[in-house]
Amino acid sequence: MKVIGIVGSPRKNGNTNTLVQQVLEGASEAGAETKAFILNDMNYRGCQACNYCKANDKCKLEDDLVEVFEEIKEADGIVFGSPIYFAQFTGQMRLFLDRCYSLVNPDFSSRVPAGKKAVLVGAQGEPDPTAYTRVFEEFGGEISRFMGMEVKDTLIAAGCAAPGDIKGNSELMEKAKNTGLNLFK
């Protein structure tokens, strides 16, 4: 089994990445090979709306996302992580998600093999964990519809604005690890 993490936070040691790493650690303990991609450290651009990917089986842009898209196709599980900035995923994550258009055929069928397990991870300064539920529900619905992924869990670090705040929430840290341990059960 292989599980990858895609982190849309600009903070390498932030709350989102910490939770993604916990899920990956649990998956690793369960025997999965794991790998993480920190979007903020990668060189890529947003979708150019050229429709090259509809006449070809890949995006025209040859940048750091080429590897990520190959890993998505090969992975059995994917952990998508982004903090909430101004009531939505970060710009880094949104640019990446727009580029996922290249993973969809012209007839809107997926180029990604169906049946992958997904985990959604988020962090937000807002203490109400339900404040941005719609963002995660919408994204979960789209990856299910366009890529045939099954969302196994959504983990929200509410009230966590400063890097490292999540480490004080032992219950959520344990839940993240258990999510990785049980991803394929």
What's the layout of helices and strands?
Blueprint: E1 2-7, H1 15-29, E2 33-38, H2 52-55, H3 65-74, E3 77-85, E4 88-89, H4 91-99, E5 117-124, H5 133-147, E6 150-158, H6 170-181
Parallel strand pairs: 1-2, 1-3, 3-5, 5-6
Antiparallel strand pairs: 3-4
Please describe what this structure looks like.
The chain is of the alpha/beta class. The protein contains six helices and six strands, in the order E-H-E-H-H-E-E-H-E-H-E-H. Strands 1, 2, 3, 4, 5 and 6 form a six-stranded mixed sheet that branches. Helix 1 crosses helix 6. The longest helix is centred in the first third of the chain and has 15 residues. The chain is globular.
Care to give the gist of this entry?
The chain is an alpha/beta fold and 185 residues long.
Overall strand count: 6
Give the percentage of residues in beta strands.
15-25%
Instruction: Indicate the mean pLDDT.
Output: 97
DSSP helix fraction: 25-40%
SSE class: alpha/beta
| Count of DSSP-assigned helices | 6
How many strands, which pairing sense, and closed or not: the largest β-sheet? 6 strands, mixed
Give, in order, the helices and strands: EHEHHEEHEHEH
Distance between the termini: 12 Å
Radius of gyration from the CA trace? 16 Å
Unreliable stretches covering 5 or more consecutive residues: none
Shape: globular
Characteristics:
185 residues, alpha/beta, six-stranded mixed beta sheet, 6 helices
